[in-house]
Write a structure and sequence with these properties.
The complex is a heterodimer.
Chain A lengths: L3 E9 L16 H23 L6 E5 L1 H7 L2 H24 L4 H24 L5 H9 L3 E6 L13 H19 L5 E3 L9 H7 L4 E4 L1 H5 L13 E2 L5 E4 L2 H8 L18 H4 L2 H4 L31 H30 L4 E7 L10 H14 L4 E3 L2 H7 L3 E3 L24 H18 L5 H17 L2 H9 L3 H23 L5 H10 L26
Parallel strand pairs in A: 1-2, 1-8, 1-9, 2-3, 3-4, 4-5, 5-7, 6-10
Antiparallel strand pairs in A: 6-7
Helix pairs in contact in A: 1-4, 1-13, 3-4, 12-13, 15-16, 15-18, 16-18, 16-19, 17-18
Chain B lengths: L25 E2 L44 E8 L2 E9 H11 L1 H6 L1 E8 L12 E6 L6 E5 L6 E9 L5 E6 L3 E2 L13 E2 L19 H9 L33 E7 L5 E4 L2 E3 L6 E7 L3 E10 L6 E10 L3
Parallel strand pairs in B: 1-3
Antiparallel strand pairs in B: 2-3, 3-6, 4-5, 4-7, 7-8, 7-9, 11-14, 12-13, 12-15, 15-16
Classes of the chains: A alpha/beta, B mainly beta.
Chain lengths: 539, 319
């Protein structure tokens, strides 16, 4: 009989990046890389586990923006074209490296992977890999949940909780249409919890959410079991706190597993290294070098002189690290169970894109870990939070603290010198959207289209990703442009709707570009009494 | 508050004023959209081959307005010890102030933020637990505010402080509450089931001897706020190699084996099949290491009856 539980949660999210107005677009590669390197390899690993009859439980959160992109025909078509070119490049690489055995082995690995990904993507799932995850959910192996519609950062929407509700309701609607069920859990974007937001989750039938460790540790009254048991918010929704110890082992760029010298080096990509004429057909058509995903080196050490990747060594390390992770969880659970007098739950959430994309061997690590937990020990059992609550319906009542999993743990990542200027506009647009929804309780025809598009533009402007990118300084101009475009389009819609002068051809173009949430109903922005949540009262 | 709470989570060093100073503080009547998205659909056309097309320049540029022609101040929480306020003062408000106080006193007055701690209060404008003033510069439209205590409610008055010390309120902010920076001092326990029906205050039976457990756990393990994690996929868009330091040279050698035969033939190089182009030509590129390579190139006719072989030997030596 197990002494405690481990809940592994993968949060899969990318911002909505889709530019039909261009034949190709650099930032669309985020999706393509994530499909090739993370989502398909994860799906493959999970299918293999299920096929082998391994008993396991994992939770995956799919953001509505990611769901929408994965099911978008234009992006699917572009992805297939992208993959075809990757296959072609990998074939040429197998030739090119023929006299370099250590590289040739890796070139063959990539070629075989790309063929396999293409087969899984195109033939097995007809380009909609979400059906694969849905099947695993039906089998009871996966618990699928979702997050805010466009991954808006909730704590900085406190001024208008109607916006939080819209993020939740639009998300749940899309999720239900995609997976034919309502999720029992909800991933708060960036783990950003603001007291009171749980009431909005409650109204929408959500049973649990996650916070960073201090969200639960600093809850009030003080939680008896720390993060090792959920707490019920006064609304009755459960909050599970992230376990820092298991997080750090996997996450930390410094001390985590992914930095092992035998693992694949992320930063040595042939897209940046090979002869320009040779690589030219496989980079951007403007000639900008990009990552291709073909990387031949292992991390090797703190050196610039990298050695060729050895797949067998790397897999061996992944197995060792899986064993190490399991061992640490066993010791942790044994200790916790002894002091708690009940079965602890260790919640270990990660970005799904860490697995495969950043940490190339991540999906294999997960595969090893799940098998080892199933067969090599009896101390811990994998569980989903929904299942935990069914087994443990009685929990302490306590209000979690404002928190996020961003650097320093609060709102600073999304509210600092580089990005604080956006809130003036986001808040104004929110107010205007609510005003529109109130003023047009039953619009029709073109006005409905404009109102729905205004709601889409507001949602897209709210993605936490834009503020995050501005802070991290990676593709700042793109993020700035996205905020300005969506706010700009929203503002034009607002004035056009009020002046009853909607420009239909312009609207048509904007609908074509920002085509997320085709079934959205702008009335979700009609403020209701319960939007005035009372979470912030002192406890 | 607790011991570990004393750790400076967010850096208490003073922030030097607002980071984002916009010159326009008194906003113009709305002219919010400078540029309107062009409706024509020509953008779907492929750009001419080889023309440089920066990836993120759409055809239109929206410029956001500096303000919305209204008088307001909005307060947000950054962390337990920092708030952020942004504000705007409408032209009419200024005119009103000038007519009330006289233009010269408005000019001479110092614009300030008066920060009130109003935790658990019905705030009437004067009864805060304590308040302090921050003089802000003329053209500032936002400010980071350092507060001393976590887990408190604050609101901010934007106003003018005249030389005789009197204060004229321009506008008042919303109320925000900062989070705790440590475990709660409240240890009463309430337990309930998911239905919430049998709410009952009841000490849990067996368990850690006291709620100190939480503190123990959070101190015992190295406690990290937020992740110092590898960031999201958005960041590696361009995973550039750092350029080597100083003067440098890298060199490698690749060779191209190319030729042509009957388009229906099967060609191998060193026994490995080669894909022919529709016109029967082929081309394969190899990285050439040091040493000698013997390269037989063989074409076999579709019916297998005819075979031609060309063998090349090539060697490389790098000193």
């Amino acid at each position: 009989m197990e002494q405690g539980y481990l809940a592994i949660v993968l949060h899969a999210h990318l911002p909505y990046v889709r530019h039909p107005e261009f034949p190709e677009f650099l930032e669309e590669l985020w999706l393509f890389e994530a499909i090739t390197e993370s989502y398909v390899p994860l799906l493959k690993a999970l299918n293999r586990l299920a096929g082998d009859g391994v008993d396991f439980r994992l939770t995956i959160s799919f953001s509505p923006t990611l769901i929408s992109m994965l099911r978008d025909p234009l992006l699917q078509e572009r992805y297939v074209r992208h993959l075809d070119k990757l296959v072609e490049l990998a074939e040429r690489e197998v030739d090119r490296t023929r006299w370099l055995p250590e590289f040739n082995e890796n070139a063959r690995m990539y070629r075989d992977r790309f063929y396999e990904v293409r087969d899984i993507y195109e033939n097995q799932y007809g380009r909609d890999i979400l059906t694969g995850f849905k099947r695993l959910a039906r089998l009871g192996k996966l618990e699928l949940i979702t997050t805010g519609a466009t991954h808006g950062y909730f704590p900085l929407m406190e001024l208008h909780r109607t916006c939080v509700r819209a993020q939740v309701e639009v998300a749940l609607d899309l999720f239900e249409k995609t997976f034919d069920m309502r999720p029992s859990g909800f991933w708060l974007p960036e783990c950003g919890y603001n007291p009171g937001d749980d009431q909005i989750l409650k109204q929408n039938g959500i049973k649990y959410f996650f916070t960073d460790a201090h969200g639960v540790l600093f809850a009030s009254p003080r939680p008896r079991y720390g993060v090792y048991a959920p707490i019920y918010c006064p609304s009755g929704v459960a909050a599970f706190g992230r376990d820092m110890e298991s997080s750090k082992q996997v996450w930390s760029a410094r001390e985590g597993y992914p930095g092992d010298f035998d693992y694949r080096e992320f930063y040595r990509d042939i897209g940046y290294e090979l002869d320009y004429d040779y690589i030219r057909p496989y980079i951007l058509s403007d000639g900008t070098r990009i990552s291709t995903g073909i990387k031949y080196y292992r991390i090797t050490g703190k050196t610039d002189k990298k050695e060729p990747y050895r797949r067998d060594w790397a897999l061996n390390k992944a197995a060792i690290h899986a064993g190490n992770f399991m061992f640490n969880r066993e010791k942790q659970v044994e200790y916790l169970a002894s002091v708690m007098g009940k079965k602890p739950i260790v919640v270990a959430p990660y970005d799904a894109e860490l697995f495969g994309h950043w940490w190339f061997e991540g999906p294999e690590w997960l595969d090893f870990l799940v098998r080892k937990i199933a067969y090599d020990q009896k101390t811990i059992r994998l569980i989903t939070c929904g299942e935990y609550l069914a087994l443990n319906p009685r929990n302490q009542v306590s209000l979690p603290s404002l928190s996020s999993w961003g650097y320093k743990g609060y709102n600073e990542v999304w509210l600092e010198g580089s990005n604080d200027w956006i809130y003036r506009h986001l808040h104004k647009a929110a107010e205007r959207m609510m005003e529109l929804a109130r003023s047009f309780p039953s619009a029709s025809g073109l006005t409905v289209r404009a109102l729905n598009q205004a709601a889409r533009e507001l949602l897209l402007a709210q993605s936490s990703d834009w503020a995050f990118i501005m802070k991290t300084g990676t593709v700042v101009s793109y993020a700035v442009k996205r905020v300005k475009d969506h706010i700009g389009r929203f503002t034009k819609l607002y004035h056009d709707i009020k002046a009853n002068s909607i420009d239909e051809s312009w609207l048509g173009e904007i609908e074509r570009r920002d085509n997320i949430f085709p079934d959205i109903d702008y009335r979700v922005y009609c403020p209701v009494e319960s939007d005035n949540v009372t979470g912030a009262v002192a406890v | 508050m607790t011991e570990r709470a004393g750790e400076p989570l967010s850096g208490r060093e003073p922030l030097p004023g607002p980071r984002e100073v916009t010159e326009i503080m008194v906003s113009e009547p709305i002219s919010e959209l400078k540029v309107i998205e062009t409706p024509e659909l020509t953008l779907v056309q492929e750009p001419p081959q080889g023309v440089f097309q920066p990836a993120y320049q759409l055809s239109t540029e929206y410029e956001l307005p500096p303000g919305y022609g209204e008088t307001r101040i909005v307060l947000q929480v950054r962390d337990p010890y920092w708030l952020h306020a942004y504000w705007e003062i409408a032209r009419e408000t200024l005119v009103e102030l000038e007519s009330k106080l006289g233009p010269s006193s408005v000019l001479a007055a110092q614009k300030i933020l008066r920060v009130h701690d109003i935790t658990n209060l019905e705030f009437d404008g004067t009864n805060s637990w304590y308040s302090f003033d921050i003089p802000v510069t003329e053209h500032a439209n936002n400010w980071y505010i350092n507060v001393e205590r976590a887990n408190r409610s604050y609101c901010v008055d934007l106003g003018l402080k005249s030389q005789d010390g009197s204060f004229v309120l321009i506008t008042r902010s919303n109320v925000v509450k900062t989070p705790r920076d440590g475990v709660s001092e409240v240890i009463d326990e309430e337990w309930m089931t998911i239905e919430g029906i049998e709410r009952a205050v009841q000490p849990a039976g067996r368990g850690p001897s006291s709620p100190e457990f939480v503190r123990e756990v959070s101190e015992k393990r190295e406690f990290l706020m937020g992740s110092e994690a590898i960031t999201s996929i958005s960041s590696p868009g361009r995973a550039m190699l750092a350029a080597p330091r100083g003067f440098w040279l890298k060199a490698d050698v690749e060779i191209i084996v190319h030729g042509a035969t009957d388009p229906t033939a099967r060609v191998t190089i060193q026994g490995v099949p080669v894909k022919l182009r529709p016109d029967g030509s082929f081309s394969v590129r190899f990285t050439l290491p040091d040493g000698t390579q013997v390269i037989p190139i063989e074409a076999r006719s579709a019916d297998g009856a005819e075979v031609r072989t060309i063998t090349t030997t090539i060697s490389r030596k790098t000193d």
